[in-house]
Design goal:
With 762 residues, the chain is an alpha+beta fold. 31% of the residues lie in helices and 21% in strands. Strands 1, 19, 20, 21, 22 and 23 form a 6-stranded antiparallel sheet that branches. The chain has a 4-stranded antiparallel sheet with strand order 2-26-25-24, with no helix packed on it. β9 and β10 form a beta hairpin. The longest helix has 19 residues. This is Mono/diheme cytochrome c family protein/glucose/arabinose dehydrogenase.
C-alpha cells in the first residue's frame, strides 16, 4: 500500500513539474512579463500563457484556476456560493492511440476562492473514479452527473455525495466520446437540455421525467435571455432555435421542423494567431491557408450567448464560440427580425481571443455570476479523438511531442479592463430572490430562479405575482417560470400576459401553455388563442399551432379549428406550416387531403411540406426489419450506432447540417470498392445523391474515415457496410472482410480523404 502511494505521489510530482517547468525560465529578474518561446510547443505556465493570448482591445484575461487545482477540465457550473464545480476528463486520449480511455480517473471537483482575490485556492474532490465524465447540473439539493452510458443523480450532503439514483441508463449509450450527449443545461423553462441528444429531463419531487425533444448540436449548449437554445457542430459556427425549446418535437415522422437547428451564423471562417498544422486534415488543399493557418471551423464547440452586465451594450446578444484546434474564441454579433435570429462575425481577419500557445484548448464557455466570460481550457496537445486521427495528425503529434503531459488544465475569465467583476450574494429571503429575477446579469437571474424552485419557496409566490403585474419584462419572464416550477401559475395571469405589449413576455406566455392547459382551463386558452389568430401576428401564429397539440386531448375539434384557421391565414409561411405538421402524428395522410381541399394550390408551402411528409411515411413502410439485420450483423449494428448514426440518423436519412442520406443512396448500394474506400478513408466536398448535390453548409464538408483506427477490423468494416447496404430500403449484396482487406491493401499508405471526382461515377 505504501509503495502504491509513493508511486502515485511521484507521478503527481512529475506531472506538476511538466506542467510548471517553464515558470522559472520565462520570468526575468524584475518579474516583468516575458513572452515565452512556443517554437517547440512546450507547456507554458498558466499565468504566463496569458501573455500569449491576443484579446480584443479593452479586455484582459485573468487566471481563475490552474493545475494542480484543476486537471483536464471540460465543463463547469456555478453554485449559489459562487464556487465552481468542474468536470475533469482525465481519461480522454491518454496517447495518440487512445489507449487507457476506460480507466476510472475522471473527477468532479469543487473550486473555491477563499480569500476573495478572484483566483481559486481550494480544491475539494466531490466524486472520483469516473470513466470519461462529461457534464454536470446542480439541481434540487443534488447534482446530475453524465458518465457514459449513464446519467446519475447524487444527493449532496456537506459537499459529499449521498444517495445515488440512476436517472437514465441510456443517456449516452451510442456514439464515441466526440459524439455523445453532453451539456445538461438547466434552461429557463425548467427543463434540462443537452447537445447531441434528443432527450430532455426534469425533476418533479422524487420523480425524473424524460421526454423527446429536438436533436441539437455536438458539444455545448447555451440559452439567450428568452430561453431559446444555441449550439453547433464541429464545422459550424453557430446554430439555434427560433422558438422556445419545448415545442415542436411531437411528430416522430417529421424529420425537420422549421425554426429549429437553424444556421444562425453561416460564416465559418476562423483567424488563428499561429500556424495550425496539427489539425486532422491539415494535409488537404484548402484546409490551411498559405501561412498554414486553419481556414474554417473544424472543432467548433462550447458556444455561449453572453448575458452578463459587465461588457457593455455592444456585447448584449453576442455569441462566443470556442475553437480548440485553432486555439481561439470567436465573437458573433446577433440580431433578431421577427422570429428569425441571424448573426455575423464581429471581425474579419482577427478573433475576440486567440493564442499562440498550441496547447491552449478552449472547450467550453460560460457566463459568470460576476458578469465575466469564463473559459474552460483543457490545456493539452491532443484534441482529436482516436476514431478519427489520421496518420498525418499522428505524425504531427509525435513530432511535436504533444501527447504529454496530461495533468494540466486552466480556467480563465475575460473581463473589461478597469472594471471590477463583482460577486453577487444570494440569500434565502424570497423577496430578495424575486428582486434578483430582474438583475442585469442573466446568469444571476437564472440562479435566483433555480434557488426559488429548488427551495420550494411558496413564501415567494405573492412577490412573484406582484412581479408579473408590475415588473420589467426580464423579471416578468423569469417570474412566470418560477411560478410554473412551483405549480403556482394561475390561468388569469397567463391570459393577461398573452395580451402583453411586450413580445418577449407574450412569447413566454405562449411557451408556458403546455404546463397550464388542463381539463378545467382549456376553454379559456382556446378563446385566447382564437383572439390571437384574429390579430394576424405572424410571430404568434407558429406558437399557436404548437400549442394546439396540448388542446387536442381535451377538445380535438377546437384544436383542429385553430390549425385550419392558421392554414387559411398563413399557407405560405414555412414556420406555421411546420408547426401545424407537428400536430399531425399518425394523421398526416388525412390531414393532407383536408388541407388540400381548403387550399388547393399545390405550390403553397403547407401543401409541399405535407406532401413530403406523407411520401416519407409511405416510403418508410417499405423499410427492412432492423432487428433481423442487427441479429445478422451484430458488430455492424453496434458500429453503426457508435460511429455512423450520430450523423446519418437512425433512419439513414441524414441529419440536417451534418450528413447526407445513406438510405437509397447509390453510393451505398452501388460499387463495393468505392463504398469501402469512402468508409476507410473518408469523403470530402460535395456529394451527389439521386440527382441532388449535398454540400456545406447543408452538410459537413468532410466525412472522416476509419482506416487508421486500430480498434476497427476488416470484419467490423464489412459488417457495418453489410448492415447499411441491407437497411431501410437498401437491398444490396453483403460485403466480406476479404473484400475490405483487398481495398485496404490497394490503398495502403493513403492518408487523405477521397473526393467524388477521384472516385468517379458509375
Amino acid at each position: 500500500m505504501k509503495l502504491y502511494i509513493y508511486i502515485a505521489l511521484a507521478a503527481l510530482v512529475f506531472t506538476l513539474y511538466q506542467c510548471q517547468t517553464y515558470k522559472k525560465t520565462n520570468t526575468n529578474v524584475a518579474g516583468s512579463k516575458v513572452v515565452p518561446d512556443t517554437t517547440g510547443s512546450p507547456v507554458i505556465n498558466a499565468a504566463e500563457a496569458i501573455n500569449l493570448m491576443k484579446v480584443e482591445e479593452g479586455f484582459e484575461v485573468k487566471l481563475v484556476a490552474a493545475e494542480p487545482l484543476v486537471a483536464a477540465p471540460v465543463a463547469l457550473t456555478f453554485d449559489d456560493r459562487g464556487r465552481i464545480w468542474v468536470v475533469e476528463m482525465m481519461g480522454y486520449m491518454p496517447d495518440v492511440y487512445g489507449k487507457g480511455e476506460d480507466k476510472p480517473n475522471g473527477k468532479i471537483v469543487i473550486l473555491e476562492d477563499k480569500n476573495g482575490d478572484g483566483v481559486a485556492d481550494e480544491r475539494k474532490v466531490f466524486l472520483d473514479s469516473l470513466v470519461l465524465p462529461r457534464a454536470i447540473c446542480l439541481i434540487d439539493g443534488g447534482i446530475l452527473v453524465a458518465e457514459s452510458p449513464n446519467l446519475w443523480y447524487y444527493e449532496i450532503h456537506n459537499d459529499k455525495p449521498g444517495k445515488r439514483i440512476l436517472v437514465d441508463g441510456k443517456y449516452a449509450d451510442e456514439g464515441n466520446v466526440e459524439h455523445q450527449p453532453n451539456g445538461l443545461l438547466r434552461a429557463m423553462d425548467n427543463w434540462i437540455y443537452n447537445a447531441k441528444s434528443t432527450k430532455r429531463y426534469r425533476k418533479k419531487g422524487a420523480q425524473w421525467i424524460i421526454e423527446e425533444t429536438h436533436f441539437r448540436g455536438q458539444w455545448g449548449i447555451s440559452q439567450d435571455d428568452y430561453g431559446r437554445l444555441y449550439y453547433n457542430d464541429n464545422s459550424t459556427n453557430l446554430m439555434s432555435d427560433y422558438f422556445s425549446p419545448g415545442y415542436g418535437a411531437t411528430n416522430p415522422h417529421q424529420r425537420t421542423v422549421e425554426g429549429f437547428s437553424e444556421r444562425t451564423v453561416k460564416d465559418n471562417r476562423v483567424y488563428p494567431a499561429r500556424p495550425t498544422p496539427g489539425v486532422n486534415r491539415g494535409y488537404m488543399p484548402g484546409t490551411l491557408d498559405d501561412s498554414l493557418r486553419l481556414r474554417n471551423f473544424t472543432a467548433a464547440c462550447g458556444p455561449v450567448i453572453y448575458r452578463g452586465d459587465l461588457f457593455g451594450d455592444d456585447y448584449r446578444f453576442n455569441a462566443f464560440v470556442a475553437e480548440p484546434s485553432a486555439n481561439l474564441i470567436k465573437r458573433d454579433i446577433l440580431n433578431e427580425k421577427g422570429l428569425v435570429v441571424s448573426g455575423k462575425q464581429a471581425y474579419q481577419g482577427k478573433e475576440f481571443l486567440a493564442s499562440t500557445d498550441e496547447r491552449f484548448r478552449p472547450v467550453s464557455l460560460y457566463n459568470g455570476l460576476d458578469g465575466a466570460l469564463y473559459v474552460v481550457d483543457m490545456y493539452r496537445g491532443i484534441i482529436q479523438h482516436k476514431t478519427y486521427v489520421t496518420p498525418y495528425l499522428k505524425s504531427v503529434i509525435e513530432r511535436r511531442k504533444l501527447s504529454e503531459p496530461l495533468g494540466c488544465g486552466r480556467i480563465y475569465k475575460v473581463v473589461p479592463k478597469n472594471k471590477t467583476a463583482a460577486k453577487v450574494n444570494f440569500n434565502r429571503d424570497p423577496k430578495s430572490l424575486v428582486a434578483l429575477l430582474g438583475h442585469t446579469n442573466g446568469q444571476v437571474r437564472d440562479m435566483a430562479q433555480q434557488i426559488l424552485i429548488d427551495s420550494h419557496h411558496k413564501a415567494a409566490v405573492p412577490y412573484l405575482r406582484e412581479a408579473i403585474r408590475n415588473g420589467k419584462p426580464l423579471q416578468v419572464m423569469h417570474a412566470v417560470w418560477v411560478l410554473e416550477g412551483l405549480s403556482a401559475l394561475e390561468t388569469n395571469a397567463v391570459l393577461t400576459l398573452l395580451k402583453s405589449e411586450s413580445w418577449p413576455v407574450r412569447m413566454q406566455a405562449l411557451s408556458v401553455l403546455p404546463s397550464v392547459i388542463n381539463g378545467s382551463s382549456y376553454p379559456y386558452y382556446v378563446k385566447a388563442l382564437r383572439e390571437l389568430v384574429s390579430q394576424s401576428d405572424a410571430r404568434t401564429a407558429a406558437y399557436i399551432a404548437f400549442a394546439a397539440h396540448y388542446i387536442r386531448p381535451f377538445d380535438g375539434a377546437a384544436a383542429q379549428h385553430l390549425l385550419m384557421e392558421l392554414v387559411k391565414k398563413y399557407p405560405d409561411d414555412a414556420y406555421v406550416a411546420s408547426a401545424v405538421l407537428s400536430n399531425l402524428a399518425y394523421r398526416e395522410e388525412g390531414a393532407a387531403e383536408e388541407v388540400l381541399a381548403l387550399k388547393p394550390d399545390t405550390n403553397l408551402t403547407v401543401n409541399k411540406q405535407l406532401k413530403s411528409l406523407v411520401n416519407r411515411i409511405r416510403s418508410s413502410r417499405k423499410n427492412q426489419d432492423p432487428l433481423m439485420l442487427a441479429k445478422e450483423f451484430p458488430k455492424g449494428a453496434a458500429l453503426f450506432a457508435s460511429s455512423c448514426q450520430t450523423c446519418h440518423a437512425t433512419d439513414g436519412n441524414g441529419i440536417k447540417s451534418l450528413a447526407p442520406p445513406l438510405n437509397k443512396s447509390e453510393w451505398v448500394t452501388g460499387n463495393k470498392e468505392k463504398l469501402i474506400s469512402i468508409v476507410l478513408y473518408g469523403l470530402t466536398g460535395p456529394v451527389k445523391i439521386n440527382g441532388y448535390v449535398y454540400e456545406a453548409p447543408e452538410i459537413s464538408a468532410d466525412m472522416p474515415g476509419i482506416a487508421h483506427s486500430e480498434e476497427i477490423s476488416d470484419e467490423d468494416v464489412a459488417q457495418v457496410l453489410s448492415f447499411i447496404r441491407g437497411s431501410w430500403q437498401n437491398n444490396a449484396a453483403k460485403i466480406s472482410a476479404a473484400e475490405v482487406a483487398k481495398v485496404r491493401q490497394k490503398l495502403k499508405g493513403r492518408q487523405k480523404a477521397f473526393t467524388i471526382e477521384e472516385l468517379g461515377v458509375d
